[in-house]
Amino acid sequence: VLRTLSTSDDVEDRETEKGRLEEAYEKCDRDLDELIVQHYTELTTAIRTYQSITERITNSRNKIKQVKENLLSCKMLLHCKRDELRKLWIEGIEHKHVLNLLDEIENIKQVPQKLEQCMASKRYLNATDMLVSAVDSLEGPLLQVEGLSDLRLELHSKKMNMHLVLIDELHRHLYIKSTNRVGQRNKEKGRISSLVKDASPVPLVDVTNLSTPRKFLETSQFGTPGSSNMRETSLLEIKEDTELDPEENSTVFMGILIKGLAKLKKIPETVKAIQDRLEQELKQIVKRSTTQVADNGYQRGENLSQENQPR
Q: Which positions fall inside the Exocyst complex component Sec8 middle helical bundle domain (predicted)?
């Protein structure tokens, strides 16, 4: 329009063009008004629908914004809860460990009394296990507990002297208990012969069937009949029976003593003590055996003299 008006040569052409344009605008306005009148209902509905859609979109945006804010808030709260739960979990583990330590301390405090009972009943393997475990705990997890220092020294001292008791028991069964069985058999045979008034001399004691440590190495007494080697019966298989007399079976009892000495790590000291006392103990065996034979012979002579049999 501006180009057309600016390129006109005179005012008349401009006015003519202006009038034509105004007429065209008026015609366009009339057509528009007629179309609005014809489609008023549809136009109103469209405008209302558009407004409704706009409001819904706006509300949805606000709700999404609120949801985002809520999610961020929940995320922060969950982080806080996670840290709190982790803290509670760590505290639970610490409390559980403390309770275990307190239970262990309570049990260790009872060790001296239980140890004394086991030693009195000759349950040396249980006593050794209990003592070694208690000392390891006192010198390990409970090392920083100052209140157990006296108990630690006491149990450590008992552990240092425990092997001496076991070695004495081992010597008693090696040299005294085994020879006592021979003497008892000799006395029983003497009593039986005196009851039947047998004037013959007391027969020699048969020692070939006695259970000695060397024969225990050759034929295991508590293995199967087919087992002919001590290697088939490991020292680990020897256990204490709390219901039976621990000294009833000397061989098993000596195995228990050796196992206890091994737990105390005193096997070298034990071997050295056995070597040092070997000659002395064998002399004592000869001395006791001589005394028993002399006493039995004297008693036999008294019985024969009373029966007027000088022979």
A: 246-296
